[in-house]
Every structure is written in C-alpha cells, then in structure tokens.
Write a structure and sequence with these properties.
The strands form 5 sheets. This protein has a 7-stranded parallel β-sheet. It has a 5-stranded antiparallel β-sheet with strand order 19-18-17-16-20, with no helix packed on it. The radius of gyration is 30 Å and the shape is globular. The protein contains 31 helices and 20 strands. A hairpin with a 6-residue loop joins strand 17 and strand 18. It has 830 residues and is of the alpha/beta class. 44% of the residues lie in helices and 11% in strands.
Length: 830
C-alpha cells in the first residue's frame, strides 16, 4: 500500500519534486499516497503526536508532568542566541570572551554526536569546554522551561522518543513498513539512529546515496553510515546506478579519475550513452583578475553562440570559498553580464564587508549617520542602546550630526564615565583613520606621545588618577593584531601599521571630512586604512575566536576586501572612488535571479547541473583548502568536493587556476602551487586554452618548480621583486631587468624600537650580543622539498619576504605547518 511507504530527504525542494514525480506515476490509481518529507518535518509530525510519552511525573503532588508538551515551540537562530545571552548574563560570564555564537556552535556539535551536557563535560580537556558544557545544561533547562525545541532537538527528541517508548515505536513500525532515504551519505548520527528505529525488524530500507558526494562532514554528516551499510543490513541488495544521464564521457572519465585516488569509497564505473563531447578545458591565468576576465569572456561568447542556435544558455562559475566571488562578480560586470550569486549575499552585501565599508564611509564623511550607527558598536565596544539614544536626542535638540553630537556629549559629560570612555575610543579610531588618509598620522602620533610624556614628567595631583585610567583604557581599546597567534592559518595583512598601542591618544576636536587631494597622489591608500581598521577593531580576532566554518568564511571575505583595495590602489583610485566602485557593485537593482550566469560555492552546487561550468582556483591552499592538508580524511573530502564540482557540467567543463594570486592583502601577489587535483586528471582529456602555457609542469613537477615561472616563452606577466632567474626557462632578458627591493625593517624589530625612542630623545642602546652565524641554504620557494634536522622532510608551502628577513612556512607530515626564519632554519634541499 502506498501509505505504508515513508520517504525522507534533506530539502523541501527535493521533497516537493519527489512528490510531483510520485503523483505522475500513481495519478488517480490510488487515493492513498506515500509520506514524503524532510527529516525535520517528519520529526515535527512525530513529536506533535507523541511527545507527551517523554514526560515524567512531577515529584510534587498536584504539579504537571515534567517535559515538553505537544504545543512546543521551535526556536530559530536568533531565539537561540537570545537564550544563551540571557544565561551568560545571569551567570556573569563575559560574552566577548565566549560569544553566544561559539557556545551554540559547540552545543550543536555535541547534539550531532548525541552527547548530553554531562558527557560533553567528561570529555572536556580545557576550562572553555567545561564552561560550555555547563551552559549547555542551562540552555536545555531554559528551553524546557519555555516548552521549546531547536532544530537539532527535533531529531534528537524524535529519536529518543522511538528508543524509550516501545508503544510509539511499534506504532510507526506498523505504520511505515517501507523506508526510503535519499542522499544517505549526508546523514548524521541522530538521523542514522532514527532510521534504525523506524526500520524495526523488517529492515525494509532503500537507501540511495553516493559516497563520492559526501561533502558535509563539517555539518555532522558521517560517511561511515553509507560505507558500513552492508554491515548494518547484511541482507541488503546493492544496486549500482552507474549510468550517468548528465555529463559527456570526457567529463565522467576525468571526474572518476580524480575521485579514484580516495581510499574510503566503494567504487563504481560511471558510463553514459552520450557520444562525443569536448575535451576538458584548462586555463592557467597569470593572476586572479585575469582568471575572472577569462571566464567572463568565455561565458559572453557562449551566451552569444547559444542565442544564435536558439538554445537556453546556462553557465556556472564554481569556487571553493565565497570570498572568491568578488573577482568574478567584477569580471561579469565589466562584460555587462547579469549574474546571480547563490549560497550567500553578493560580496559587498555581506555583513562583515558592509561593516568595513561603513567604517571607510565614516572616515571619509563623519556626518554619514547611517554608516556611523552601523559601526559605532561593531565590534562591540560598550556603546549600548541607552548611550545611542542620548546621542540621538542631543543631535535632534542641537541640530548637530551624530558625529558632532558625540563630541558634544563628551564635552558636556552627559554619560557615565564608562560610556564616555567607549565613545572616546570610537572617536579616536575614526580620527586616526582620517589622519592616515591626510598623511599626518605619524605627526599626530608623535605629538600625542610627546604630550603624554610631559604629563608623566609633571603630573598634577588631581590628574594622576585620570591619566592612569586613560592609559588602562587605551590598552583595552587598542587591539594588537598578531598573525602568529592564529596557529596554522595565515592571516597576514602585510606590513603591520604602527599604532598608538600603549600610548594614550590625545583627545582633539572632531575634524570634518577630509578634502580630496587632487594635485598629488595619496601616500596612504585605502588598503592601508583597511588593514589599520581590521587591526584596531580586533575584527579578525573576534571571528577567529568563534572557531566555526562560518567565521573562517567571513575572515576570508575580509581578506578579499583588502585584496580589492589593493587592486584599487593599482588602478590609482582614491578612497571616494573605491567607495563609488563598491556601491555600484552592490546595487541590488542590477541583479536578476533569472540570470543565465550563476556564481556559487562548490558546496552550494550539489544537486545542480549546467551546460557550461568553470571550476576555478585549483591551487594548493585554496582547493584543496589549507585547513584540510593535515588530515587524510579531510583531503579525501576535498577530492570528493572536486568530483561534485566536475560532475555539475553537462557539456563543457573548464578548469582554471592563477599562477600568481594576491593573498591576505599582501603588497604583491604570491606564486601559487597547482592543485594536486589537476595532476589527477588524465592528460589526454585536457585541452590547453592558454597559448603561452604548458600543462606539462602541473602536479608534482609544478609544485617542485613553484618558485619559478610556468611560461615557456614570451611571458607577459612578471613582478619586479620576484626572483625568476633560477627556474624561468626563457627569462634571461627579463631577469636582467629585475630590481632589488630592500625589505623594510620589520614592525617591532629591535631597530624599529630603537628608532622610536631616538625620535623622542630617549637613549636606547642596541645590544651587542654575539650572533650565531646562520647555516643552511637559502632561496627556497613554494613547492620545493626540504629537510630539517628536527622535523625531517617537508614541503615549502609559503614564502614571505626576501633576503635576511625571509620567512617560509613548511608543511611537515608529522609536525604540521611550521613558520621558520629562513636564515636560521638550517634547511637543506631534500
């Protein structure tokens, strides 16, 4: 009977499509229909009917049972954060050190692994996890008190209900005698347990899945569920669906060759009845901008040709991280192509990007009250709703802008000292940004330091406490940015900007908007101001502390914004021109959801198909991502992600990479290492799309030569400080033109500190301790194999700087990523 069939999938779209197909098959033959639902929708149905079975009697006579009732509410993300915030406030916990987002992320992880608060506490290895376990228990109590469940609870409580109540379990075992599970490779532990309970003793389970498309482990999916299916159901019959109805033979062969390098898979031989088909295109761009323009140009030609043939064209650009969309968006706009960004907002519409753009707007025009309200307490700096209401009321009464009202509020002392201190910190941040743009930041810093030194030498009796408090406040407000604190992840924004950390800034009247300097080129560019803002606000540190995939994605978006500002500098744009450019890019009126061009991440592309697909950014550290390089299981998931991306293509697939890519706002683009996935594609299936490049040096050979060039002749792309003489095949003429760039003294170096004190009339003697003569070879480049006396053999992953101050990051198989000063590293070529 159809009504005895239960089919579960993951998305409402998939469930609706399955329902439509069943309706076409069954039609009017049967009044009864199978139940087709998502996991969460089915669990809500079960709990609405039988959740009372989980209640326990109250120990107090006359009191209702303890537990959720059938009228339970379902909390969304904002509701959950509000609950955690209230708990932390009640317990007196600092939500800046341990944010509600972090707490909820850890609680969700525990629920996906079916751990209760006590189990999480027992497994904890640090005070932070112990604190989260306690918050987890309080969170459960609050939800129970509110008769509410979150999304993870829907799965957990339905599973617990079926496990603990034999009556309920028997009812559903009789009600649904046949169980169908779609996308089985994406199931997590609670969904797996739910399926086992519903299957009962009959084991009438039909699971459809592809282990090569398991790409959601970061959301709790467990690939073991599908790999061990035969162990759970020994009587199962395995039917291999190996015929592919989408892609051409070349695409299938290439994708199969890549994923065949994985160990954890069942294996299959895909085939198609389609004949012919183009080879897989491969384009090696000189840089990221050229890569995006190549894709835009090729898509524009494809759209014209498809229109001439009377076809409906659809093309997609797929990338590993959402931050990569920025260059492709700008490329599409330069070609006048309408596009749709899937899986997130357009780059300039993302919250963290809008925050930084708003900071720049306030620096450019402090009277921009809308932008000011967005950033006045972002990130949180202790300026609450009450403080903002006082400022707004004063602005209304005096006719001042909000920026002017801030200065007036501080002058009149209309707020408590703590709120005034926070306003002072925000005001000084904006003023420092304005001083940077005006080119007099160093003079103001020196004047501020001199003023403070005078105050320290002759303090007034009544002012000693105030000066001390100002010093403490400055130390709290000025957040130092140290990329070394981020472990294996490089968050280098180039040379650090010397800030007034530890030196309390002088309070000055709020300056007006910076006048545009038309006669002379600016000495400080937009990228420098952005680095300064990210440093001083501590935006990166706050996101890094969250330690979630979403937070790392937002960090990469901030990096890409600095890259965009670097590109703006190369075009000679001023701050107002950069802001105009950003405003045009983010104009919502230019977007068309029915666009024939789609930009999306690889994770968002799963389940979709396009006649033309560009798979971009095939470089080590980008795809596969740098965070996955130390764990074989993570690399295998990255390879599965590549397989998913390649099989989105129906007729034509183009793989692209950039020889040089600007990373993390560095002053000049860095040489990249070709992705290992490129080497895994059989050479006969590849068609070179770049006339001056050769794929003969991809893969292992290219990684070994990553420090040199990839061009065989007539190179049109070089950088003045890139040493190409060692491995550039025909670069003799170019090498002769190279200029030697003397590296600047590192920020916080002993020479830098000495100069700081000398400029203020202070004596500072450089220590003359004997320095051990460094040993080992120099000039290592990304991709080269090296040997270290302690860590053994490894591969150079990244190089920073040249000469005496060069630093290299090396990946050692047994010890992970290590950043070493090259002249002291004692490295030898392996």
């Amino acid at each position: 009977m159809p009504e005895s069939i239960l089919a579960m999938t993951f998305t409402n779209t998939a469930a609706a499509e399955m329902g439509e197909r069943v309706e076409k098959l069954v039609g009017g033959l049967s009044i009864a229909k199978p139940v087709i639902s998502t996991f969460h929708s089915f669990c809500v149905r079960v709990l609405r009917r039988d959740i009372d079975a989980l209640q326990i009697p109250s120990a107090t006579p006359g009191q209702p049972p303890i537990g959720h009732t059938k009228k339970f509410g379902i909390y969304d993300e904002s509701d959950m954060q509000s609950v955690v915030k209230s708990i932390m406030k009640r317990l007196g916990l600092d939500d800046k050190q341990l944010t509600p987002r972090i707490v909820l992320s850890r609680i969700s992880w525990a629920k996906n692994h079916m751990l209760d608060p006590q189990e999480l506490y027992l497994q904890s290895a640090d005070p932070k996890t112990e604190k989260i376990a306690h918050l987890y228990e309080e969170y459960r109590k609050e939800l129970r008190k509110a008769n509410a469940l979150d999304f993870d609870d829907l799965l957990l409580e339905a599973t617990r209900l079926l496990k603990t109540s034999s009556t309920v379990r028997e009812y559903y075992n009789k009600r649904f005698q046949y169980l169908l599970i779609d996308e089985y490779q994406d199931t997590n532990r609670p969904q797996y347990e739910l399926m086992r309970m519903l299957a009962g003793e009959r084991h009438n389970v039909c699971a459809v899945g592809d282990e090569d498309q398991s790409i959601y482990s970061w959301r709790g999916a467990d690939i073991r569920n599908i790999l061990e299916f035969e162990q759970d159901f020994p009587e199962a019959k395995i039917i291999r669906l190996e015929q592919n109805y989408r892609s051409t033979p070349n695409i299938l062969q290439a994708a199969s060759a890549v994923v065949a390098n994985n160990v954890k898979r069942k294996g299959k031989n895909l085939w198609t009845s389609r004949q012919g088909g183009a080879k897989i295109g491969y384009y090696e761009a000189p840089d990221g901008e050229n890569e995006a323009l190549f894709a835009a140009d090729a898509i524009a030609k494809y759209l014209r040709e498809a229109a001439q043939r009377g076809e409906t064209p659809r093309a997609a650009v797929l990338y590993r991280t959402n931050s990569q969309s920025r260059l492709f968006e700008e490329g599409m706009r330069r070609y006048g192509l309408k596009y749709h960004v899937v899986g997130g907002f357009s780059f300039y519409e993302r919250a963290e990007i809008k925050d930084m753009i708003s900071y720049l707007k306030v620096i450019q025009n402090p009277d921009d009250s809308i932008s000011l309200l967005r950033v006045i307490n972002t990130p949180a700096r202790g300026i609450g709703k009450g403080t903002i209401e006082v400022i707004e009321r004063l602005a209304l009464e005096t006719g001042l802008s909000l920026w002017g009202a801030i200065g007036e509020t501080m002058k009149r002392q209309l707020l408590p000292q703590r709120a005034l201190s926070s306003l002072k910190s925000f005001q000084q941040l904006i003023q420092d940004g304005q001083a940077m743009l005006a080119g007099n930041f160093a003079e103001e810093l020196a004047a501020s330091a001199e003023s403070d030194l005078k105050q320290e030498s002759s303090p007034a009796d009544s002012g000693e406490e105030t000066v001390s408090q100002s010093n403490d406040q400055a130390e709290d407000d000025v957040t130092a940015f140290d990329p070394e604190e981020f472990g294996n992840f490089s968050f280098d924004f180039g040379e650090a900007i010397e800030t007034s950390a530890g030196v309390p800034p002088a309070v000055e009247p709020a300056p007006g908007p910076i006048p545009a300097q038309q006669d002379a080129a600016p000495t400080v560019f937009t990228a420098d101001v952005l680095k300064f803002l990210i440093d001083r606000t501590g935006y990166i540190k706050i996101l890094e502390a969250e330690d979630t995939p979403e937070a790392f994605s937002r960090i990469e978006n901030l990096r890409e914004l600095v890259n965009a500002a670097m590109d703006s500098r190369d075009r000679g744009e001023t701050l107002d021109q950069f802001l105009d450019h950003a405003a045009l890019i983010s104009d919502a009126d230019d977007y068309d959801e029915r666009s024939q061009v789609t930009l999306m991440s690889l994770h968002a592309a799963k389940g979709l198909e396009f006649p033309l697909v560009f798979l971009s950014g095939l470089e080590e550290g980008l795809f596969p991502h740098s965070r996955t390089m130390l764990q074989p299981d993570d690399i295998e998931e990255e390879r599965r992600l590549c397989y998913v991306g390649m099989t989105r293509a129906m007729d034509q697939l183009v793989l692209t990479r950039a020889v040089y890519r600007r990373r993390y706002g560095t002053d000049l683009p860095e040489a990249s290492v070709p992705s290992r996935f490129l080497e895994e594609v059989p050479a006969p299936l590849i068609e070179e799309l770049g006339a001056t490049r050769s794929r003969a040096v991809t893969g292992t050979h290219a990684r070994q030569a990553a420090g040199g060039g990839y061009y065989t002749e007539s190179s049109h792309y070089s950088y003045e400080d890139e040493d190409q003489s060692a491995s550039w095949k025909h670069g003799g003429a170019q090498a002769a033109k190279q200029k030697t760039v003397t590296p600047a003294k590192p920020y916080n170096s002993i020479e830098n500190i000495a100069e700081f004190f000398a400029s203020r009339g202070k004596k500072f003697t450089l220590p003359k301790s004997p320095v051990e003569e460094p040993t080992g070879k120099r000039g290592f480049r990304p991709g080269q194999k090296v040997r270290h006396p302690k860590y053994g053999e490894g591969t150079v992953y990244q190089r920073e700087g040249e000469g005496e101050d060069a630093k290299i990051t090396v990946q050692f198989p047994r010890f992970g990523l290590k950043k070493l000063v090259e002249k002291y590293a004692q490295l030898e070529r392996a």
